[in-house]
Amino acid sequence: MPYLAPTSAADALSALAAGGLRVVAGCTDVYPSLRPGDTLDAVLDVSGVSEWRGIKETSDGWRIGAATTWTEIVRAPLPPAFDALKQAAREVGSIQIQNSATLGGNLCNASPAADGVPPLLALEAEVEIASAPEASTRRVPLADFITGVRQVDLAPGELLAAIHIPRDATGGGSAFEKLGARKHLVISIAMVAAVIDCSTSGRIAKARVAVGSCSPVARRLPALETRLIGLSPDDLSDATLEDPVLYAPLAPISDVRGTDAYRRDAVPELCRRAVRAACVED
Amino acid sequence: MDGRPTEPGISFTLNGAPVHVSVAPGERLSDTLRERLEARDVKIGCNAGDCGACTVLLDDAPVCACLTTAHQAAGRQVETVAGLTAADPRAQKLARRFEAHGAAQCGICTPGMMVAATALLRTTETPDEAEVETALAGVLCRCTGYRKIIDAVRDAPVRGEPTAIPRVDGAAKTSGAEIFGDDVAPPETLEIALVRSPFPRGAFTFGELDYWCASTPGIAAVLTADDVPGRNLFGVIPGFIDQPVFAVGETRFRGEPVAAVVGAPSTIRAFDPSTFPVAWDEKESVSDPVEACADPAPRLHGGPDGNRMCRGFVACGDVAAALDRADVTVSGRFTTGFVEHAYIEPEAGFARLVDGRLEVFACTQAPVMDLDGLQEILGLEPTQIRIVPTGVGGGFGSKLDLSVQPYLALAALKTGAPVRLTYSRVESMQSTTKRHPAQIDLMIGANKDGLISGMAFSGLFNTGAYASWGPTVANRVPIHASGPYRVADYRAEAQGIYTHNPPAGAFRGFGVPQSGIAQETLFDELAEKVGLDPLEFRLKNVLRNGTPTVCGQVMEAGVGIAACLDALRPAWEKARADAQRFNADAEGPLRRGVGIGVGWYGCGNTSMPNPSTIKAGIRADGTLVLHQGATDIGQGSNTVISQIFARALGVDLTAVQLVGPDTDVTPDAGKTSASRQTFVSGNAARLAGEALRTAILRHVNAAPDATLTTDRGQLTVTDAAGSHTIDTSNLAPDADGFVFRAEESYDPPTQPLDENGQGSPYAQFGYAAQIAIVEVDTRLGTVRPVHIVAAHDVGHAINPLLVEGQVQGGVAQGLGMALMEEYHPGRTENLHDYLIPTIGDVPPIDTLIVEEPDPHGPYGAKGLGEHALIPTAPAILNAISHATGVRVRHVPVTPARLRAALKEAGYA
To answer: Distance between CA B367 and CA A169 in Å, rounded?
Structure first.
């Protein structure tokens, strides 16, 4: 079977339509997932598809090609609302991984601990899904695209082409907090991304907070976001943020990295730190 | 390497030269480079992007070659460490700095480190520490503790002592030229895949193996227990040889081999073990040592004591009476997890038949033990086997045991062809030995003046499915569990317990790190109870020259633990005061703490002979040859043994040409374990150097204080009477080609232990004390080590640079054991679920070298390998307690565990 590395979206989609190909880009998740005896053949490598690479400002926001690497995110001039995404980018494995791994791969791999998902959720990202013929694309909110552990809303013949960040979501500052048992190369025990607008009078006017590694798919915390409105970063005392109702979307489990109880205990503090840092950044 | 249909091929630039190569679809760039383009300087540690050893530059950007498809390199520039160090002046200077700082120990991560650092230096000429950390965070190192790597990249000043010389074998490590276990086999060599047990305990029956072998394309042979011509067992301790090469009927741990498949590389890479004709029936297993000792538990082996494998015991005085009269007592139960060696080089090797003799090339810490083991398995005479150790990409104890060697040997003998086997990271982690998990009950008493009054120790050590070095652990622990203190009334028992886990064996310290955690943390509690500073409390109780150990052994000289504590005192007092200030001012959740840990370790085998032999000579062409059989696994024996030999002979080190531990040509210098090489092989090297010197001086009747120089085939001996030149080409060489020769052995003087463990188990102990300064985030339970100060009594530092390297590497492993390392069979069989410290986790380490000469050591030198790890974990635990008041009695102290303990103690 072949190794196809098209450079145009049209070629990639028509090859995909023919079926039988595994879509890869940075390959940083696909190789480690191979079981003994598995070889990687029949490959559609989309990492060179020009339409699916790079970051562009558009009339309604930002479009990030799905094959954009984390290093490209780190280096791109982007508004402060993207700082959480950049901080997450620096935590994706190592520089070696960031040079190869792509945003689209991170989303399609659909790990509960995907570093890219919480900051993109907090940016109200939508994904652009393409299929042959090239004209047919559909857009889905990221929150709906990832449907479960290792599961995404992609039909045969479809692939993730780009991520869109609506302009409305790019105001304010942002921050990312990752909790792990070592400093680098670590899968998070829990992580929080916050995009906060507190530009007027130092009080929080808009807040979007998303938590990863504490549910099958990273989740926004709407009740917490509502609670934050009108508060100043100095008001985020224990009592303000400890109410379990605020974290109802989460369903942490116990694994080798930590217990469910620990995750429940840590998340409010990570949220507090992320929100405060996001305010300071603005 | 991969015979699948290939496309027309791809072209790229490799280290400046155009290459065109056929590749299989989806082939990893690392495989293309190593197997098709002979770039064996690219090392593979995990094939998952977790270790970074395979880092190459792709159009100037560091990537993991193991996660890059060969196709993605098409039309681009690929640079590897060999190319960089051949052509890029920045990389060349960096290589010299790596050597000068001792930034390469075993050398397996060095290519990845060098490549990643070169990429940084191309964009940032004088990086700060944070920039170095970020740039190198993707490469794991298990030997160095990273600090010397940071120093090398930043071009920090080097140590000044004349003996602090760079290792003699460093250049091959920084250029990637060193040949490790997977680097020997030529491309297209037959490969081996092992069929392993999917269950901790499984009964199995094979299907039609002959039919399967004959009908499966590309398979050359299938091997099972029926193909073992000798004894289907191996092990390391006489009386405890209990591990089958291939399980028979039933397996005893998950990952235990039952069969081997030998075939063409493409066949083996596409081999799915689940297609092998074997039927499994999972059986009830036991993984917990307490449950394993209970009556209904399944028994792993025969024997009168069920799953109790063996017991070590030491007692002196009257412990019950001493605890009874003690003014204060403390006690606790401590548990420690499985710890994985996690060297970056998985077990690997190559075997072939040469004129009917078997030659095995593999990474090993014990070539002669490998030979002994293979001869039993194969039913061959020892003369029919040659063991050629390759470079060892980290060992730390696990590469003392046989791993790939029996399968290589059996496959070579069965097929008659050269064969190759490299464990995957998963195989390495699931099947090779680990540090014993321990459950320790300890009670210690003291009188109100702070003198120890009674210590009672009881430990269960989970030895897994097979004995390996479990008996050594059980014997060592009771001897060492007192710490280097005067304990007149003592009782310690350690038991090794069989369970259905991977075998636990030798790991830097043989159980002593586990017992040290219990003893040293309880010492802090005692100090608090009697109102003494922890350092002063220890100083009150330490062994001194002339005071007996718990074995009744009295060392009249060289007991250096008090000197270590004295050396630490200034740093200790300052750090404790600083922490107090920090915490007094603290408003947020951060608290600082300063803890101390002490350790000791007997160098060499416990009350058993463990001689080393060193051979050396001068050839007719004047070359001075040292047969250095002390396997260098990164710790530096090639350098240290040579330094000792050159000093004894009285020549410059550069005159010495090394021949390594090849069993055909080099005498047995014993295994690299038990911190014995500097001490034991060092003494043999000293004796050999002295004997060779005597032979040369006698030849010209020179005075004993004559100077000796070698220059281009001429030996010149100069004394007060004048200068004598010996033309070695005029002398008749012996069978080895030597015109002068010496071969000397050394075996440390020990005495057997009686039934109460009384005797002289070791001729020499080394001593250590360390301070850990940590910062605890009390709200999240995370711990950040801030600084370590390590005082080590090495008797005499043969090479202070290498001493520092051992200390820093040991500290990093102790830190990992304290805070993050915990192996769970079946769940953490890779280097992203099993965490070892990264470059960002190891703080600055100050090494204080203390030299209390040992009467037995060469020039007073003591061993060091294990000592470096032992004090670190208790020092960190004591620091956490100092910061927070909370004591955690299970390691690793993960964030979840510490946070739970903090909440229990009332922290918000």
So the answer is: 64
